[in-house]
Every structure is written in C-alpha cells, then in structure tokens.
Write a structure and sequence with these properties.
This is Molybdopterin molybdenumtransferase. The longest helix is centred in the last third of the chain and has 19 residues, at 300-318. This protein is α/β, with parallel strands linked by helices and 402 residues long. The protein has 4 domains: 7-21 and 174-318, Molybdenum Cofactor Biosythetic Enzyme, Chain A (3-Layer(aba) Sandwich); 23-44 and 146-172, Molybdopterin biosynthesis moea protein, domain 2 (Alpha-Beta Complex); 51-134, Molybdopterin biosynthesis moeA protein, domain 3; 328-401, Beta-clip (Beta Barrel). The protein is elongated and about 95 Å long. The protein has a 6-stranded mixed sheet, with no helix packed on it. The protein has 7 helices and 28 strands. Bound molecules: ligand LQZAQKY5 and molybdate ion (MOO). Ligand LQZAQKY5 binds at residues 181, 183, 185-186, 199, 201-204, 247-253, 256, 278, 280-281, 297-300, 302, 369-370.
C-alpha cells in the first residue's frame, strides 16, 4: 500500500497541471455558468439621471416642511417622457416611478400621503430633503468595473451585462472531453446481448453527464476492445481533446492495457493508484499543451467517484472557476458506520437531508463499487478518513454533496 498517492497530493498534481483555456466571445444568452475573461465596465452612470423612486408628487422640500401644504399641480412626468417643467415655490409636478425629477424639485411625496383638490395637491406628511429621489450615479459610475474578470456569470450578472449594454462578452472556453470505455465484455446501449458474461456500459453515460454537469463538452467515443493495437489506434485521437478519459484497464488484470499504452502515446504519467476507496486504480498524466489524461477504473461507482473527486475540479479550473470543488457540509450521522480496513480514505455513498437546522446523513447499506444503486439512491459522499474504523451514531461527519 506504500505507493498509493494520498488524495490531497493527487489533487495538487492535477490542479498544478491545469491552465485556464483561451477565451471566446459569447452572446449574453449563452453566458450563464461561464467565467468572465475580461473586466466589464459600465457604459454610463447608473442611474443616468435623478429620478423618482415612487409614484407621487415632485416638490421643493422647502414647501413641505410645514404640513399640510397646498401646492399647485403644474403638470405630469411619466417614466421615459417628461415635459420641460420647472417646479417653483408653491408648485408640484405629478410624477411616476422612474421618471426624471423636474428642475427645481428635490423631494418626492408618495401619492398615499396626498389628496387632490381642484388642480392642487395637499401634502399631509413631511419628508426629509431628497426623500424618494434616486440620484444619478448612486449605484454605479461610468467606467466603473461592475463584474470583474474571473467571476462566474449567474442570472444577476446576465442582467448587469444587459444593463451596461453588453450583448457579447469574453469568457473562458469549455474543454472538449473524449470519453472511451475499454473492455471486450462491454456492450453499448441497444447492442444485443449474446453471452451472459457481457456487461452493459454505464460508464460512457455517467461520465458524459458528469462532464456536462461540470460545464465541459463531452464526446462519447464508445467502447474499445482489449486489443492493444486497436486500443492504441483509437487513443491516438487524444490530441483532439483537452481532456481524455478512459474507463477500465488500469488495474492488475493481464488485459488492463490502458496503463501500458499511455507512455507510447506520449502521456507523461504523474500518478497511478490512490489511497481512496472506491477508485484506487486511477491513472493521471499530461500530454500535448496542458492536456489531461484520466484513466478511471472500470467499476461504475469507482469511475464516478474518481470523476467527482479529480476530473470535476480540473474541468472547472480549466474554465477559469475559482470554486472548483463540490460543496462540503457537516452532517449528523444517523447510525453507526464500521469498516475492517482503514488504510484508504473512503467516500461512502449516503443520503443527506436538512431537518431542524442541521444536515443529517445516512449511509447507503450496499457500498460495493459495482453497485450503481449506491449512487442512484444517494446524494452525497460521507468521508471516512484514513485510520478511522468506526463512526458513531450522532457524531458529526463531513459530506460532499452531489
Ligand atoms: N488483483 C487485483 N484485482 C483488482 C484490484 C487489485 O488491486 N488487485 N483492484 C480492483 C479495483 S479496486 C478496481 S476499481 C478494478 C478496476 O479495474 P480496471 O480499471 O482495470 O477495470 P476493468 O477490469 O476493465 O473492469 C472492472 C469492472 O468494471 C466493469 N466495467 C468496465 N467498464 C465498464 C463500463 N463501461 N460500464 C460498466 N461497467 C464496466 C467491468 O466489467 C468489471 O466488472 O479492479 C479490481 N481488481
Ligand atoms: O477502487 Mo475499486 O474502485 O475499490 O472498486
């Protein structure tokens, strides 16, 4: 067990080898979830002019210091319109939310504190000077950075882009990820089963979904046989992709060829085999210019776990994200958890829920790495550290949500 790489070290190696990809320009509608590769600045002051925050009357504050005050209504300002009216002593302009404040006025009285009477308005309550007036530039000044480079675009940032009149923005491009399963026994979806020993693939599709979820562009390259020459031919296409993922063929079997081919293909192997359970036999290497190769284990749960722990952060980091890991929280364990061998750090699939102000966690009863039900019926990994044989009901545990 000496040569098993600890997870922290493996992650450090992977992330050291990630460089954010080049930028590309996308329309605002396609920008959700992407990371800005430029500072976005405001085209104007926001608001661009002093305007009303309420429907009511624009007045001179001097005129409403004493209430009730009776003022002559000299006209009306709606949002987007507005005649050239000037509010002079003893007068008011009817105004709507968002309309410019007429010259001479400095305060807006909301309509609910007024009454009208033969072309006059009676103000019944006094307000502070400047009340209900939104000032030019009070949110943003022209030229100010409103979204900095490196920030992820959420719906709010999309709105901000529109507000500063940016239809197109520069973001980091998404990585293209090739996905290849290996194994003579593996059948694709819809292929006829001719022998009971054949195994229907899940990995191509689990990994496809995981790549999409991480923001990458997946390319399902199907299934390669356990024939070194053929496998090598297919794997020559690695250069078309930013990341290449294989599943299977990285363990101790005589037909586990992936591990022997990688060096022939010019992949510089950085580690093989991790101190984690499941997903011990993970192979990682780099090739070309900052391209990453992940040889994931064939067992369906192992492949998925290895992806979530190592490939997910790499895909995120390539797109310029600062937050590259899945969310971790602390939960209360609802039942004892025991294991015989505590050599590796375990990622036990579990169900986590929020109740009475706390997260709670219940491990799934079947934890073998061929059992996809353990993922389908779970929403988190419970972390059981190296050297820990037992976790007690009621104690706090660390969980990674997925
Ligand atoms: N003597 C040893 N044997 C094994 C060890 C070991 O340390 N010593 N490690 C075990 C562990 S842990 C794992 S994980 C597996 C990983 O093996 P490989 O990555 O070489 O994968 P294969 O042998 O090709 O397949 C393993 C298993 O997964 C099934 N499989 C493969 N591809 C798919 C797919 N696309 N979809 C669904 N299922 C797939 C395959 O049929 C096998 O059942 O090695 C252990 N052995
Ligand atoms: O690491 Mo294997 O992935 O334990 O089954």
């Amino acid at each position: 067990m000496k040569n098993l790489t600890p997870l922290e070290e493996a992650l450090k190696i992977v992330l050291e080898n990630v460089k954010p990809l080049e930028s590309e320009r996308v329309f605002i509608h396609e920008a959700l979830g992407r990371v800005l590769a430029e500072d976005v600045v405001s085209d104007t002051d926001k608001p661009l002019f002093d305007n009303s925050a309420m429907d009511g009357y624009a007045v001179r504050w001097e005129d409403i210091k004493e209430v009730p005050a009776k003022l002559k209504v000299i006209g009306e300002y709606a949002a987007g319109t507005g005649e050239n009216l000037k509010v002079e002593k003893g007068t008011a302009v009817k105004i709507f939310t968002g309309a410019p404040i007429p010259e001479g006025a400095d305060t807006v009285v909301p309509v609910e504190y007024t009454e009208t009477q033969d072309g006059y308005v009676i103000v019944k309550k006094s307000f502070k000077q400047g009340a209900n007036v939104r000032r030019r530039g009070e949110d943003v000044k022209k030229g100010e950075v409103v979204i900095p480079k490196g920030k992820e675009i959420r719906p709010y940032e999309m709105g901000m882009l529109a507000s500063v009149n940016r239809a197109v923005v520069s973001v980091y491009r998404k990585p293209h990820v090739g996905i290849l399963s290996t194994g003579d026994e593996i059948l694709d979806v819809c292929e006829e089963q001719t022998k009971p020993s054949q195994i229907r693939t899940s990995n191509n599709y689990t990994v496809y979904g995981q790549v999409l979820q991480a923001g990458g562009i997946p390319h399902n390259l199907g299934i390669a046989p356990d024939e070194p020459q053929k496998l090598k031919e297919i794997m020559r296409s690695i250069h078309k992709y930013d990341i290449f993922i294989t599943t299977g063929g990285v363990s101790m079997g005589e037909k586990d060829y992936v591990q022997y081919l990688v060096e022939d293909l010019g992949i510089d192997v950085k580690f093989h085999k991790l101190r984690i359970k499941p997903a011990k036999p993970v192979l990682f290497g780099v090739y070309g210019e900052n391209k990453l190769f992940f040889g994931l284990p064939g067992n369906p749960v192992s492949a998925a776990v290895a992806f979530d722990l190592l490939v997910y952060p790499a895909i995120k980091a390539m797109q310029g994200h600062r937050e590259v890991f899945k969310q971790k929280v602390t939960a209360i364990l609802e039942g004892d958890y025991r294991r015989k061998n505590a050599d590796r750090r375990e990622f036990a699939r579990c169900r986590v829920w929020f109740e009475n102000g706390r997260y709670h966690c219940e491990p799934y009863p079947k934890q073998d790495s061929h059992m996809l039900t353990s993922l389908v019926n779970s929403n988190a990994y419970m972390v059981v550290y190296e050297g820990v044989n037992e976790l007690k009901k009621g104690q706090e545990v660390e969980v990674i949500l997925f």
